[in-house]
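Thread amino acids onto this structure.
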C-alpha cells in the first residue's frame, strides 16, 4: 500500500512528514529500552525479512493482489518502538533505491504502514494476550488478530488523509468502502504470514520473541528425572547448568544463548524469498493501486523522482533476463536493508549503554565523606 507522489497534496504530505519524523524520533528513544546485544542485529534482520516478504504479492480477488505491511510482525518480534523503526527503514530503502512509494509521500507511508499498523496491531495483541491463557498458542492467535485488524486500519487512515488532501474529486464514501473492503481481505494474508512467522520463531527460540516475554513458562531443568526451577544464575550470560541438568522440553532458552543460528537462517530465508520466490509473485495491482485505478484517485500521480534508479521497479538496469534482474534486485535490497537496519539499531543500542556510563561517572568521581 505504498502511496505514490501526487495522491495527497503538499500541505497534508508535509504534515504527515512532520508526524512521521516525530514518531521516528520517539521510537528511537523507546527502542533503547527494547534493544540489547542480541536483539539489535535481529531487528535489522526483521527489517530485511519484511522487505523480502513485501516482494511476494499474493492474489486476493477480482484482479487484485496484496502484500505484507509488516508492522504487526515487527512489533511482536522485536517490540513496538523498534517495530516502527524496522518498517520505516524498509520504506526508506524502497523509496530511495526502488522508486516504490513517493519521496514526497514518504511521511504518509511511514504514518500508514509503520506507525498505524504497529500501534493498532500491538494494542490488539497485548489486549488478547492478557485475556487468553499464557501459552505460545495464545501468542500466535493474538498475533493473527493484531495483524488482521492493522491492515484495514491503515487503509482507513489513508482514506482520512485523502479526505484532507486528496488531489482528485472522488466521493469519500466510495474510497472508504473500496479501501477498507479490499484491505480486509489483504489483512487475512497479513495475519497468516505474521502468525506463521511468529509461531516458527516461538518453536525454536521463544526467548527472542518480544511479545512472548512473560507469557512463557520459566526455565526448568531436569535433575534426576524431576523438573525443578532453574537457579537464577543459569539464565545469566555465560552461566553453565549444573552437572546432569538439562533444559526441559519447550522451556525458554537461557538469556546468554547465541542468536547467530536464528540470524543466519532468517537471512538465508529472506535472500531466497527476495532472490527466487519473488519471481512467482502475483503481477496484479495491489489494493491501493486497484482502488486508485477504479475510482480515479490516480489522475494526478507524478513520476517518481528516483524513476531512473538502476534498481527502479525491483529490477537491475541493463539486465535483460527478467528472472535474473528481479532476483538480483531482491538480493541487493535485502543486503542493503539488513546493513542499514543493523547499523541503525546498533547505534541505538550503543547510546543505551553509553547513557548509564555517563550518569555513573560523576557519582564515581565524588569523594566520600570524611
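Threaded sequence (370 positions):
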Amino acid at each position: 500500500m505504498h502511496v505514490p507522489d501526487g495522491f495527497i497534496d503538499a500541505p497534508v504530505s508535509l504534515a504527515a512528514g512532520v508526524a512521521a519524523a516525530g514518531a521516528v524520533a520517539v521510537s528511537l528513544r523507546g527502542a533503547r529500552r527494547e534493544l540489547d546485544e542480541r536483539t539489535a542485529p535481529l531487528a535489522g534482520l526483521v527489517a530485511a525479512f519484511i522487505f523480502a516478504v513485501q516482494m511476494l504479492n499474493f492474489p486476493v480477488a477480482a484482479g487484485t493482489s496484496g502484500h505484507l505491511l509488516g508492522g504487526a510482525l515487527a512489533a511482536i518480534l522485536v517490540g513496538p518502538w523498534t517495530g516502527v523503526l524496522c518498517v520505516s527503514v524498509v520504506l526508506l530503502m524502497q523509496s530511495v533505491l526502488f522508486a516504490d512509494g513517493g519521496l514526497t509521500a514518504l511521511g504518509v507511508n511511514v504514518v500508514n504502514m509503520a506507525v498505524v499498523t504497529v500501534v493498532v496491531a500491538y494494542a490488539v495483541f497485548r489486549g488478547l494476550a492478557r485475556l487468553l491463557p499464557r501459552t505460545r498458542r495464545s501468542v500466535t492467535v493474538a498475533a493473527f488478530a493484531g495483524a488482521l485488524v492493522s491492515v484495514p486500519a491503515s487503509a482507513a487512515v489513508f482514506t482520512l488523509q485523502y479526505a484532507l488532501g486528496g488531489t482528485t474529486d472522488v466521493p469519500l464514501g466510495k474510497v472508504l468502502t473500496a479501501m477498507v473492503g479490499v484491505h480486509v481481505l489483504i489483512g487475512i494474508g497479513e495475519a497468516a504470514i505474521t502468525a506463521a512467522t511468529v509461531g516458527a520463531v516461538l518453536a525454536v527460540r521463544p526467548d527472542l520473541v518480544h511479545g512472548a516475554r512473560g507469557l512463557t513458562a520459566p526455565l526448568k531443568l531436569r535433575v534426576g528425572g524431576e523438573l525443578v526451577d532453574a537457579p537464577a544464575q543459569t539464565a545469566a550470560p555465560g552461566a553453565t547448568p549444573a552437572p546432569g541438568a538439562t533444559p526441559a522440553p519447550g522451556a525458554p532458552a537461557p538469556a546468554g544463548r547465541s542468536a547467530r543460528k536464528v540470524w543466519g537462517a532468517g537471512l538465508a530465508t529472506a535472500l531466497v524469498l527476495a532472490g527466487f520466490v519473488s519471481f512467482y509473485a502475483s503481477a496484479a495491482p495491489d489494493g491501493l493501486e486497484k482502488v486508485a485505478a477504479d475510482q480515479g484517485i490516480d489522475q494526478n500521480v507524478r513520476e517518481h523522482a528516483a524513476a531512473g534508479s538502476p534498481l527502479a521497479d525491483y529490477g537491475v538496469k541493463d539486465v535483460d533476463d527478467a528472472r535474473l534482474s528481479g532476483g538480483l534486485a531482491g538480493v541487493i535490497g535485502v543486503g542493503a536493508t539488513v546493513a542499514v537496519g543493523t547499523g541503525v539499531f546498533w547505534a541505538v543500542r550503543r547510546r543505551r549503554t553509553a547513557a548509564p556510563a555517563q550518569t555513573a561517572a560523576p557519582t564515581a568521581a565524588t569523594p566520600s565523606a570524611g
